[in-house]
Amino acid sequence: MQDLSRYGWLSVGAAVATIALKFWGYGLTGSVGLLSDAAESLVNLVAALVAVIVLKVIARPADRDHEFGHSKAEYFSAGLEGAMIFVAATYIFYASVERLLNPQDIEQVGLGLLITVAASAVNGVVALILMRAGRTHNSLALVADGKHLMTDVWTSVGVLVGVALVWATGLWWLDPLIALAVAVNILFTGRRLVLDAGGGLMDKAMEGEDRDEVDRILNSHKQPGRVDVHEIRTRVSGHQQFIEFHALVPGEWTVDYGHEVLTAMEDDLRERFPGVHIHSHLEPIEDERAYGDVHL
Length: 296
Hints:
Helices cover 67% and strands 9% of the residues. The protein is built from 8 helices and 3 strands; from the N terminus they run H-H-H-H-H-H-H-E-E-H-E. Strands 1-2-3 form a 3-stranded mixed β-sheet, with helices on one face.
C-alpha cells in the first residue's frame, strides 16, 4: 500500500498551529469556552502523531508474520483517537463546572475571536484535504482524522458564537455552558470512532450499497439448475475488502470450463471493487456435500 504518512504530518502541523493560536486566544480572554476548544486541539495533536505511525505501519507489505498485511492497524488509530476525545471531554467538563462555581469575566474578546477564526480556517482546510485523501485511498485513519478536525471546526464555530454572545450580553454563565456543550458534542464523535474501530476489529461485513452490489453481481451469473452461488461472506479490514463465496457448477464440466465461469464472477467483482481480495471455491452442483456448510 502507498505510504500516506505525509498526510499525517500535515495533520500534525495543523494541530501544532491551532494549539498555539487557541491557547493564545484563551490567554487573552480567559474564556473557558476557548480553553475547551484548545483542549480538543491537544487531542488532535496526539491523534495526528498516532496516525503518522499507523500510516507507516499499514504501508508495509504483507510478511510471514502478517500474511494478510497490516491494514488493521488503522483501527487502533481510530480507537485511540476516540479514547483521547473522552479524556478531553472529561477535562472540559471539569473546567466548565469549576468556572460555574467561580465566575470570571472574559477580556479582549475581539482579538481572541479573530485568533480562533484563524485557527478554525487552518483546521477546515486540512480536514477537507485529509477526508478527500482518505476516501481516495480508502484509509480509515485519514478519514477519522479529517472528521475529527472538521468536528473541531464546528466546535470552534459554536464557541465563537457563544463567546460573542457573552461579550454582547454580559451573561458570564453562558461561557461555561458553551464549554459543556462542546464536551457533549465531542463525546458523540469519540463514541462513533470507538464503535467504528471495534466493528473493524470484529471483522465487520461490507455494508449498504457495497454489500448489495456483491449479491447483485454474483446473482447475475446464476443459471437455474446449472450455476449457483452460496456461502457469500464479506469483511472489511482497514482499507482492504474481502469477499468469499462458493460457486456450484455441473460436475460433468471440465475443470478448465468451471474455472472460466468462476473467473468471470471474480472479474466482475474486481471491476466494481478494485483491489478486493477474493476467496472462491468451486463445487459440483449435484453433490449433496456441497450444501453441508451452508449456514448464512
